[in-house]
Amino acid sequence: MQLVYFISLLLALPCHSLFILVPLYLYPDTSASAWSSVTAAIAANPNVQWQVIVNPNSGPGTYPPDANYITAMSKLNSYPNVLTLGYVATGYTQVPQTTITSQINVYAKWATYTQADISVDGIFFDEVNNTAASAVFTYYKRAADYAYAKVPSPVTPVIFNPGVPAPARLFDYADTMVQYENPLSAYQDVATINTFRPGFNDKTAIIIHSTPSTADIKPLVRSMVQQGIQSVYFGEDCCYKVFSADLLSSLASAVSAG
């Protein structure tokens, strides 16, 4: 993990300790119109650090991505307060390592595209197995090591998403661990945070879906800041296909307020 560079990047930005992790799985459409609420929130909140996960086809698909993705990725990469991550599903270790490395290779190749900056900064590994077993640890260490080595970025953030508390050893291999991915109705503020693996809040992400656009999320975000959580997302739907401008604005404002 290139933590020194990552920390220096965060310090260079006038951003806050908590950053926003956006699972932007939606197809961008023409002129990145389907991503407009996300890019508008990013542009309106330059002091907030954003990490945006892109997922063209349950992974990178073919190289190069289509014209709409090229336009959309170029726009995302134009913002200095954004890091982009490519989505890779691991199937709880059932996806062969050769498939994992092949998908990382495609994302890495995006950096060679010369007509626009469509590069990704890091990799988001989904469907992570949280079993404390040596075979599981070996699988994810290999995947993470390959991402760090292959993605041509000075930062290369690697995120694991088990969606639940993870064994301590898994934290050795990634910069961020999603320890909660569930609806707002199941989230119990500090009581939920207290179920996480102790000592790793500063490497923990919380992804909350099924959040009404009118929900008051400020007290929850404030608790996350106080508990030292690293990153957060509140989404309106279960599958990250709806991006409410109002909810994104509320989230960014809450993160900015700390």
List descriptors:
alpha/beta, eight-stranded parallel β-barrel, 8 strands, 33% helix, disordered N terminus
Helices, strands, pairings?
Layout (H helix, E strand, L loop, with lengths): L2 H10 L6 E6 L11 H9 L5 E5 L12 H10 L5 E8 L7 H13 L12 E5 L7 H17 L7 E3 L15 E8 L6 H4 L10 E6 L8 H9 L4 E4 L10 H13 L1
Parallel strand pairs: 1-2, 1-8, 2-3, 3-4, 4-5, 5-6, 6-7, 7-8
What would you note in describing this structure?
With 258 residues, the protein is of the alpha/beta class. Helix content is 33%, strand content 17%. It is built from 8 helices and 8 strands, in the order H-E-H-E-H-E-H-E-H-E-E-H-E-H-E-H. It has an 8-stranded parallel barrel.
Task: Using the CA coordinates, give the radius of gyration.
Answer: 17 Å
**If helices are DSSP runs of H or I spanning 4 or more residues, what is the number of helices?**
8
Q: How would you characterize the largest beta sheet?
A: 8 strands, parallel, barrel
**Cα distance spanning the termini:** 27 Å
Mean pLDDT: 94
Short description:
The chain has 258 residues and is of the alpha/beta class. The protein is built from eight helices and eight strands.
